[in-house]
Structure formats: structure tokens, C-alpha cells
């Protein structure tokens, strides 16, 4: 833990130092208002905000009340929204409990997104050792970063804003989830959104919401070549959050003026002065208190600074811990598979399939391109370049606004090639960098040193980019379960990637589609070629055969961080469901789950936007249920 804290501080100080030194070295014209050079003035302001850290965030409540109307567990992509919306009702007292720390403004630099995975704001989950995936990683374990900070994973993510397809949500409704069809949820996407986009279909975007959604202010020549190449092979350039999703485009992102716009910034900053909203940070909820006779949630138990507390609730406990923490907390509280709880001597409250149905969007992580130009993104160069820093700090533009290097995506229905009105089962996500772009990049996935040395070390200093063929509708399902009854021990996680081998066929189809793009003029102008050094674990296969790429996907199984489904939504008649369509836990009163874990099927989207939609809809349902 001390090592992680040192790494976390090192990252912040390193970025700060780059900014500060470059500011001093630059000879700008003196500002008439302050006497400081503009970049230095901006730097002082940026660092002052950072050192003040949570100046715009709701303060940490030193002493909580004995009782609240609502307790929200987790201040992430869902919990921040729910707490904000419920505290709009002045007569309701709301307590939001977050295990992590305050957010800092350095966390808002889009290009720095990958670096925070190496800090204390990451829960740092890992899978169990795998036999059919993650084979190229240390211990055969995939890393699952999750945000442990105000704003949760909306602080760690790459800010990509996609919603999914109409059929995703219509299918939810067909499963018995009344009110979750596309026409019913679209208004909640739009309610949150404050869109400022260069391409937006009329009637599909909100303009007055709290969540800023914008284009990325900067684009590399690689991004332009990717979008142009897709267009030349027949992919229409579309608003991926509009009427149709099949096509290609640059990213829409949760940014404002070139900085990350997390749910903390969007929903909690405006609520800072509400006297009825209390926020308790650095506090881990260890158990939901449930009356075993009435099966009613009556409060929570949490630990802060090593001391245990209890706080009670008049109306509801709302669990928004995400697809790992939420099932873990339910099971620790006696809600979960009967035999599993008995094995850990946890008294049973309700026998439910908590932790099952784990889904993720997994991608092939080894489709790397070499190019003939030095236009790819290298993090160190970007932070040290005085012009890039000037662009970012003074005007909110430039290369530092690119979210972790990701720039564009294509959505494709491989089951209906050429169709423009289908539902994507494949995404091609393009990032303008490679594993050798920064010394920390191989560590994002936990790549083994011997694999990096054999394949990627030779690319250091060379230009390149990565395309991630991503599986959007996995047939494989995983599971989250308890290691033991200790709430401070990470649960066990098995994503079960590629248990259904047809999932690999979609990934191979993505490779073949991108190879079509490589044959176009825009890609040829970069002299883009697939890095053809075979992975050590796949040398038994001829390079570029289907068998090779399937083997490669099992070696470098790259999570896109879209864990979902472990507290599945469904009607009482659905034996696989944990919550009902109003997100109330089956058989337990006064308890809801509101986050990505309730998704019965993962949508064809990066899950941050759908999670925020779920929280918006849940907030309205809670208000309706309490006649407000």
C-alpha cells in the first residue's frame, strides 16, 4: 500500500513538475492583469487547484448523522448521479459513502488517463489465474482496474461516450424488464447530456444536462487515416449516438474544454452546497444491516480510519459499487447463493444468484501497426513538450486532450455485413500508440517481460498505433464470488473469456475487416503494416491464420473495462435475476442496486454512458415510489 501511494504521488508530481518547469522556461509576454507569463499563470492556477484538491467537491463529512433517508454506497458513475438527484429533494437527507479519496484536477488531463491505473485510486483487481485467456500476463491473470475515488471509474476511464443500439434496450424489455425499452431510456440519456458536437443527429442529444459530451479537440493524422479508410471500405461516417450506430467516426467523449468531465465534476460539484447531502470519503461499507425477521434493509456498517460505524436509514439503501463491489457487498450481507454463503459461514438473508452473469467487452490486444511517420502519441514527449502544455493549460486544446491515446472507433455487425441498420457485435477501437509508447504501457495489462522483450521492445522509438477488435456481445459468462468473509479481501473474479469459442470468431472477423482498411489509400499513405513478430505462445501457428489470431486473443486478452451483469435485472419469474425492473433486490425491502451490475445483457456500448442512464432512471423511479 505504501508503494502504491508513492507511485500515486510520483505520477502527480511528475506531471506537475513537467508543467511547472516548462512554464518557467518559456519566455512569454507578461500578462497585464497579473504580471505573470500566461502559461505560468495558468500553471499556478492549475497547481493551486490540484493542491487544494477537493475545493469544488463536496467536503468530507467529519461526523455523520445517526440516520438518513437514503444511503448511497459508492460515488462512481452511478452513485454520484443518484446522490445528486435524490438530494434535489430538500426534505430528504442523503448520505453518500465512498471508499476512495477526493479527485484532483490532474486526474482530468485526458492523455494521462492510463497513468492513474498505477495509483491508489485504482482498486487494482485481478482475475483468478486463467487457462483459456490472459495467458501472456503475469500469473495468467488479467488486470481489472476500477475507480476508488470520487467519480469512480469515470475518473479512470478513457471518457468514451457511446450508448448502444435500440435493440439492446428493447431486448432488456423483452426479458420482462418493463420500462427499459429504447424509447423509455433515450430520454434519460438526453436528460444527462450537454452535447457540443460537430456531428449530431437531430432529436438524439440533450443540450441542458450536467454531463458535457464533446468531440476531442485534437486529432492525429492516424485518426484521420483510420476514419477515411473505414469510409472507403463502405462504413458510413455516423453519429454513433444517433439514429444508427453501424459505421465509423472520431470519438464522442465526456469532456469539457479539453478536460475530463467525470460524474463527480458533472453531478457532485453543483451539489456541494446542499445541506441535505453529506459525503463520507475514505470509508468502506462492510455490510448492509438487514432486519432478519422483516427482511428490510435498515442501514449500513462502514469502516473509516480503522474504526467501525453504523448508520441507519429511514427509506432505502442504494448500492452503487459497480459489478465487482456490489455483488461482494450483497454476499457479505447474506444475499447470494445459499451454499456459497454457507461455505463462508455468512447467515443467509436471501438466496439469489449474486455474482453470476459477469460480462465484459474483451478485445484482441496484439493488433499493432508500424507506420512511416512519427505521428503516434508518446506520453513523455507530450507532457514535456512546452507547446503542447501551452495549448492544454491556456486553451484546453492540443495533444494532451486525447483520452489515453484513443481517437476513433468503428461499429460493425459481422452477422449482417453491409447492413447500415444492424446492431454492432464488433467494435474496432483505434489508439494512436503502442505498448512501447511509454514505459508503463505494458503494465496496463500486466504483460510478462519476456513477451514484451520478444515482440515489442524492438518497436521502441518507432511510430505505430493499435487497433482493438472488441467483442460487443459475448456469449461467454463469468462470475464473481467471495474469497472469504473478510470485506477487505478482494473477491475472486473469473471473466471466463472465450469459454464459448464463437466469441473468438468475431474477433478474427475484426482483424479481417481492419486488413481491408489497410489496403486503402489513407492507410497506405502512412505505410501502415501489421507488426508480424509472432507471440511466443503462438509460434505453433502460421502468422495471420485464423488459428494464430485466436491464439493471440487468448494470450493478450485486453479488457475494455466494461464489467457488468453480476446483479442481473429481471422479473420475479426469472431465476437468474437479483433485482426487479425497479432495481429493488428480490425479497429484501428498502434495498436497491443501481449500477452496471444490473445489466441483463451488456449493450453494444462503452458502459459509462449506459450506467449514467441507469442512475438517472433509477433516481426518477425512487422519487416516484416515494410519491415525490
Describe this structure in words.
- With 628 residues, this protein is α/β, with parallel strands linked by helices.
- The strands form eight sheets. Strands 1, 2, 11, 12, 13, 14 and 26 form a seven-stranded mixed sheet that branches.
- Strand 15, helix 10 (338-343) and strand 16 form a beta-alpha-beta unit.
- The longest helix is centred in the first third of the chain and has 24 residues, at 2-25.
- It is globular, with a radius of gyration of 24 Å.
Assembly category: single chain
Helix count?
18
> What is the rounded Rg?
24 Å
Give the number of DSSP strands: 26
Unreliable runs: 1-7, 20-37, 50-54
Shape: globular
Approximate helicity band? 25-40%
End-to-end separation in angstroms reads: 45 Å
Main sheet attributes: strand count, strand direction, barrel closure: 7 strands, mixed
Strand content: 15-25%
**Please, what is the average pLDDT?**
92
Structural class by secondary-structure content: alpha/beta
Compile the SSE list and pairings.
Blueprint: H1 2-25, H2 38-52, E1 67-73, H3 79-86, E2 94-97, E3 125-126, E4 143-144, H4 153-156, H5 166-174, H6 182-192, E5 193-196, E6 211-215, H7 221-232, E7 247-250, E8 252-253, E9 255-256, E10 259-260, H8 263-268, E11 277-280, E12 283-291, E13 296-304, E14 307-319, H9 322-332, E15 335-336, H10 338-343, E16 350-351, E17 362-364, E18 368-370, H11 379-384, H12 386-395, E19 406-412, E20 426-431, H13 441-445, H14 449-455, E21 464-471, E22 479-481, E23 492-494, H15 502-518, H16 521-525, E24 529-530, H17 546-555, E25 557-559, E26 591-593, H18 608-625
Parallel strand pairs: 1-2, 1-14, 2-11, 5-6, 14-26, 15-16
Antiparallel strand pairs: 3-4, 6-8, 7-19, 9-10, 12-13, 13-14, 17-25, 18-21, 18-24, 19-20, 20-21, 22-23
Helix pairs in contact: 1-2, 2-12, 3-18, 6-18, 15-17
